[in-house]
Amino acid sequence: MHPPPPGAAMDFSQNSLFGYMEDLQELTIIERPVRRSLKTPEEIERLTVDEDLSDIERAVYLLSAGQDIQGTSVIANLPCLMRQNPAETLRRVLPKVREVLHVAGVEMQLTAAASFLTVLQEESVSIHTYAHSFLQVILLHLEHRDTGVSNAWLETLLSVIEVLPKETLRHEILNPLVSKAQLSQTVQSRLVSCKILGKLTNKFDAHTIKREILPLVKSLCQDVEYEVRSCMCRQLENIAQGIGTELTKSVVLPELIELSRDEGSSVRLAAFETLVNLLDIFDTDDRSQTILPLVKSFCEKSFKADESILISLSFHLGKLCHGLYGIFTPDQHLRFLEFYKKLCTLGLQQENGHNENQIPTQILEQEKKYISVRKNCAYNFPAMIVFVDPKNFHMELYSTFFCLCHDPEVPVRYTIAICFYEVSKLLNSGVYLIHKELITLLQDESLEVLDALIDHLPEILELMSTGGESSVQENKLLSLPDLIPALTAAEQRAAASLKWRTHEKLLQKYACLPHVISSDQIYYRFLQRMFTIMMTNNVLPVQKAASRTLCIFLRYNRKQEQRHEVIQKLIEQLGQGKSYWNRLRFLDTCECIIEIFSKSFFCKYFFLPVIELTHDPVANVRMKLCCLLPKVKSTLKIPADKHLLQQLEMCVRKLLCQEKDKDVLAIVKRTVLELDRMEMSMDAFQKKFYEKDLLDQEKEREELLLLEMEQLEKEKQQNDGRPMSDKTFEKKRRDTKTPAALPKSLPVAVAGPSSGTSSTSKEIKKSKLIRSQSFNNQAFHAKYGNLDKCTSKSSAAAYTPSVSAKTSVISLTDNSFRTRNANSVPASFSPNTPLPSTSRGTGNSADAKSSGKDAQPRKATLRRSIGVTAAAFACD
Fold first, then answer.
1. CA 660: distance to chain centroid?
2. What GO terms fall under cellular component here (predicted)?
3. How many whole angstroms separate alpha carbon 82 and alpha carbon 361?
4. Of 10, 107, 722, 776, which is most buried with the most CB atoms under 10 A?
């Protein structure tokens, strides 16, 4: 029905009304089947069951007088009945199930097979009881006329065989199998017998197998039907594992040789795959004298008269070359390698530019087969590198690798992209040979190829940057100038598509870039892009991935000015942004910063901007902030951060007393209870927090090392005009790493209110000196300059803090973080206002004296009993 366009005048002429009547009749016809599907009162009466019946009685009633759908429901619920009342279920329900299954349809049969298997897996009854009650039902329906039903019951039986005792297997399954495997039985019966025989060989000893099972196996291998011969051939692998090496060589191998020459292509294919899977069982003589000639015959026939085996041959070629490695003559080795190369380009020479609609169906099927062959060749490429030796890669296989990476079909390029990491590992120091192919796959037009490649992108880039060696090169990936444009183009292509999971994964993998390219390259080519994604992308997981990656970029940035600009932009454009969505992303970013950076870094730059969001006008922002407050509190150390703790307590109290939104208030109350239970970390090491404190100390040392490295780099540039190499930086970083287990008496490299020890390392002293010289010249931030005054004014209203010593709230910024001049700062990163920060241990001497008692070692676990809970209910 097509309604008139909006604004069109209604036409009441006879023709127009007739048209509307036709449309109404169409609607009536559409609704008619819905009316017919409704149940009549009689049908509803038949489907109604007395509610007072027990589960067992209801099941018996529905199986006896209910409809098929109700019976199917009862059978599906059989495992539950067995768990609740196994005795009554076996006595009353199971006999009814047997009766119903005789005349049941396909759906009920499939449901019964699945339920019987579930009862077995849940072990609701003993194996003896299960065999007595369920096994005969399973065996009875094995030869159902429907193939799907027969296969479902067979899968259940094969699982039952795993747990049945030998005597039950012999009497209930093996003895009847002798007659079921005869030629007089149906093909379906003989196919079932083949699969059962393959399962039984692992349950009996070699003598029983040789006397009772192997004669049946030989008979089925010579069956008149090719389906039976093929099925039995595929079971020979299981039989060989059950009978041992000697019987395999004397019984199984002759059968495989005969089946490999069978007239049926499916039988030959089964024989070939079984031979490949059994290569480890045969000794060198059998491989060289028997199997190798067979394999050569398969390879020759695959191109000439038997293309059906070509796909399987290409798939197993890597395993074949590995299993026969060492018995090839140089001529045979070269021949197999040439055969593999030919398969890698199979079908490419036959392209003639025709449209698929103009090509006959047979040619289309052949093209699909050739694509599968090339895809399998790509899958086996790492094995072929081992076959030729990685040292000969450039001479023997590089051209083939190039063809696979530039293959016109996506499945082939997708598979080689999956294998790219394995290829890189095998080439080791020769990984530079495939630099161009990495760029090619990164720039591939298919996002499926890109998605496959980026799974191991960090490992690949690390191998590329180190040349396959463990030492760090001075020039990271300078030999690959196209890498950064390829990475940025790949990200933009993923962002422009609808496949946001690929985009998210790519952004997560970009976190490895600080280890493979320089800090400046990341700053100018990737950081701004991360900001753009965080602020403009509509997919939350993508935004969070960009946020975390940006934090890692910031963590390893080697220039203070750049770090300063990034931090200021985070605070101004996200934390103080106009959009509440940006402020939510700021809290996500702060959560990552708490995880990645040291506690002192977060407290210095992000603590105050975070707690300022307690005044945010949007309830969702306040709710998210409340959930983050326990992590924020965990960054504080007592007594150094006593003033920050007071600020946190004051903000929480304001939320409790002034919050109007009931949802936010409920979360605030839960957060207060959690904050009250938290134990504060001390400046000194504690047993309870030893590992966390040690990790935080290591993070802080590396952050201080960045300051020192930059100062040394500036001095080096002044001396000889050359920048410090990344190799020197990595060596310096390794030299200053914290040992795995430090003694408790070791001085902690954390700035505190009073540090009386003189045994601090040379690096820490130097970095402190640099910071102390630069801190004095930075102005206070206007917004946070009077926090100490605000704290003193509101101290009467605030609840009592656990640490009562005076602490000056000093908000300083590093002089080295000052804004660069206009000529050296990008427009997107130009800061307008100084950066707020809080500094630990920068109080005056009076404060240091007054807090001297607090600085002494005290009880290891300081519990915050702040009385906030009482204040919360008082405010209510």
1. 41
2. cytoplasm
3. 54
4. 107
* DSSP per-residue letters across 132-165: HHTHHHHHHTTT-SSHHHHHHHHHHHHHHHTTS-
**DSSP for 822-854, written as a single string:** TTTS-GGG---SPPP---TT---HHHHHHTHHH
Q: Across the strands, what pairs with 863?
A: 679
Between CA 452 and CA 456 the distance in angstroms is 8
Predicted pLDDT of residue 469: 54
* 557 and 522 Cβ atoms separated by less than 8 Å: yes
CA–CA distance, 377 with 386 (Å, rounded to integer): 14
How buried is 756 (Cβ within 10 angstroms: 0-12 exposed, 13-18 middle, 19+ buried)?
exposed
Number of H helices, E strands in the chain: 51, 3
pLDDT of residue 754: 38
Q: How far apart are the first and last CA of the chain?
A: 60
Residue stretches of the chain with pLDDT short of 70: 1-39, 43-47, 303-308, 350-359, 468-480, 683-689, 720-876
d(CA 868, CA 195): 71
Task: Scan for tokens 């196209």, then name that residue.
Answer: 482
Q: Provide the pLDDT for residue 750.
A: 38
Which pairs count as long-range contacts for 528-535, CB under 8 Å and 24+ apart, including other chains?
528/826, 528/828, 528/829, 529/488, 529/491, 531/569, 531/573, 531/828, 533/495, 533/507, 534/574, 534/582, 534/585, 534/589, 535/573, 535/574, 535/577, 535/582, 535/585
As to burial, measured by CB atoms within 10 angstroms (0-12 exposed, 13-18 middle, 19+ buried), residue 876 is exposed
Chain-centroid distance of CA 727 in Å reads 33
Is 707 within 8 Å of 770 (Cβ atoms)?
yes
Q: What whole-number distance in Å separates Cα of residue 162 and Cα of residue 200?
A: 9
**List of residues 6+ apart from 419 with CB closer than 8 A:** 378, 379, 381, 382
Scanning 280-323, the segments in alpha helix (DSSP H) are 284-286, 292-304, 310-323
Residue type, 163: V
Please state whether the peptide bond connecting residue 747 to the residue before it is cis, i.e. omega within 30 degrees of 0. no
What is the model's pLDDT at position 624?
A: 94
DSSP character string of 19-84: HHHHHHHHHHHHHHHHHHHSPPHHHHHHH---TTS-HHHHHHHHHHHS-HHHHHHHHHTHHHHHHH
Strand, coil or helix: 637:
strand
Joined together, the tokens standing for residue 25 give 């009749």
Question: What pLDDT is recorded for position 478?
Answer: 52
For residue 679, give the DSSP letter: E
pLDDT of residue 348: 87
Residue 679 pairs with which residues in a beta bridge? Answer: 863
- Residue keyed to tokens 């902690």: 748
Lookup result for tokens 């040979």 = 433
**Structural contact between residues 124 and 112, judged by C-beta atoms closer than 8 angstroms:** no
The 8-class DSSP code of residue 498 comes to S
The identity of residue 76, as a single letter, is A
Compute the distance between CA of residue 85 and CA of residue 169 in angstroms, rounded to an integer: 28
Distance CA 397, CA 321 (A): 15
- Pick from 344, 402, 336, 406: nearest CA to 376: 344
Q: How many residues are present in the chain? A: 876
CA torsion sign for 523, 525, 526, 528 is: positive
Which residue matches tokens 């039903």?
Answer: 149
Per-residue pLDDT at 799: 37
**pLDDT, averaged across the chain:** 78
Q: Give burial (CB, 10 Å; 0-12/13-18/19+) of 836.
A: buried
CA 683 to mean position of chain CA atoms: 38
What number of other Cβ atoms are within 10 A of residue 165's Cβ? 11
What Rg, from alpha-carbon coordinates, does the chain have?
38
Can you tell me the distance from the alpha carbon of 763 to that of 728, in angstroms, rounded to the nearest whole number?
A: 15
